Description:
mainly alpha; 7 helices
Amino acid sequence: xxxxxxxxxxxxxxxxxxxxxxxxxxxxxxxxxxxxxxxxxxxxxxxxxxxxxxxxxxxxxxxxxxxxxxxxxxxxxxxxxxxxxxxxxxxxxxxxxxxxxxxxxxxxxxxxxxxxxxxxxxxxxxxxx
Length: 129
């Protein structure tokens, strides 16, 4: 099977459910989303890859004062990792402390992973009833 530009499908367990997400998997899918052709998402064809760019809006707490910054740090880090710039250079251009940006990026990825895992559990429980 030829390699797809957006990368492999998310892993699926033998039961057919997506396995537990962690922060690294969230970061990986966000990078893959930046590498993929994002126009497909905007043409109405929603995919897991396209959805990864929307995860911060779906799963980060709206009331948290650092939500916007954490979202930006995660998405811009992924954009850099996708080959558009160096993370160190991008932080320097924006006047960000790289260690602070990394800390908030990781916080955002962890919350998104927790939110996805909760959604998987809720969907599985709903199917079971």
